[in-house]
Amino acid sequence: MKKLAEVYRGKAKTVYATEDPNFLILTFRNDTSSLDGRRVQKFERKGMINNKFNYFIMNKLADVGIPTQIVRLLSDHDVLVKKLAMIPVECVLRNIAAGCMVRRLGIEEGLVLNPPIFDLFLKNDVMHDPIINESYCITFGWASAHHLSRMKQLTYKVNDILSTIFDNAGFILVDFKLEFGLCNGEIVLGDEFSPDVSRVWDKKTLDNMDKDRFRKNLGDVIKAYESLAKRIGVKLD
Ligand code: ATP
Ligand code: TYD
């Protein structure tokens, strides 16, 4: 499958059309951004690591029956996916308090959230991805109650599967973001799961193994991504 026209250039990935209108190619670039794209930096190997990381995780999820976009890995940076009609809502699952939740509520980072919290954000860079809830989705037509219920159910299932995978490798899955889309009327997991869209801490040292190393200027961003990938079993080379 060949890359044809560029359909969309996001902050971390570029999306290409293919000969088949049902499929797209996602290209994982080395760009990393924060502050709504105002801070951007390139990290050698990041695109390759995230592409393989995402492919590995989505296959693990598909193995237990979660519908995913993945068709096949094409190269270090490229993956062939089903074209989804993306739902403009981000599903965030939190096992441990961190990030914007801590800032918004003034609670202590590291607090165990039992049961885990499910948050929704509108995908809208201009409005800085505001937090929303199910009621907003329905009123404004961003997602139906039926689709939201499926997205929530799948997000919790992803959490169960991935928490175990990370736990077995010596990590804590703190939180993560998922995006879903529709394919033939079915809710399907799209976009990516990688250290760019999740928080993962080392169980022993509580070191950040994810994009927080970039956000907080901790250094060794790629070293952490690579070590996380290798320890959960992603084959990088
Ligand atoms: P953000 O970082 O806030 O998610 P972005 O648009 O800059 O925004 P990128 O990951 O760089 O994010 O861009 C990838 C784009 O491709 C996203 O808009 C995402 O919703 C879209 N996308 C991901 N998977 C699919 C898919 N299978 N079918 C159609 N579009 C997809
Ligand atoms: P969150 O704490 O809501 O925001 P911030 O990253 O500003 O602290 O993020 C929770 C998790 O979801 C975290 O792992 C990052 C991820 N996430 C994204 O990748 N993109 C997003 O637009 C949002 C809202 C969250």
TrEMBL record:
Name of the top EC class for this enzyme: ligase
This protein's pathway: Purine metabolism; IMP biosynthesis via de novo pathway; 5-amino-1-(5-phospho-D-ribosyl)imidazole-4-carboxamide from 5-amino-1-(5-phospho-D-ribosyl)imidazole-4-carboxylate: step 1/2
Gene Ontology terms for molecular function: ATP binding; phosphoribosylaminoimidazolesuccinocarboxamide synthase activity
Domain (SAICAR synthetase/ADE2 N-terminal): residue spans on this chain: 7-231
Gene3D superfamilies in the cross-refs: ATP-grasp fold, B domain (3.30.470.20), Phosphorylase Kinase, domain 1 (3.30.200.20)
Signal peptide range: none
Pfam families noted in UniProt: SAICAR_synt
One GO cellular component, as annotated: cytosol
Alphabetized InterPro entries for the sequence: SAICAR_synt/ADE2_N, SAICAR_synt_PurC, SAICAR_synth, SAICAR_synthetase, SAICAR_synthetase_CS
Catalyzed reaction equations: 5-amino-1-(5-phospho-D-ribosyl)imidazole-4-carboxylate + L-aspartate + ATP = (2S)-2-[5-amino-1-(5-phospho-beta-D-ribosyl)imidazole-4-carboxamido]succinate + ADP + phosphate + 2 H(+)
Keyword ATP-binding: yes
Coiled coil stretches, renumbered: none
Gene Ontology biological process: 'de novo' IMP biosynthetic process; cobalamin biosynthetic process
UniProt entry keywords in alphabetical sequence: ATP-binding, Ligase, Nucleotide-binding, Purine biosynthesis
This enzyme's EC code(s): 6.3.2.6
Family: Belongs to the SAICAR synthetase family.
NCBIfam families found in the cross-reference section: purC
Protein name: Phosphoribosylaminoimidazole-succinocarboxamide synthase
Originating organism: secondary endosymbiont of Ctenarytaina eucalypti
Gene name tied to this protein: purC
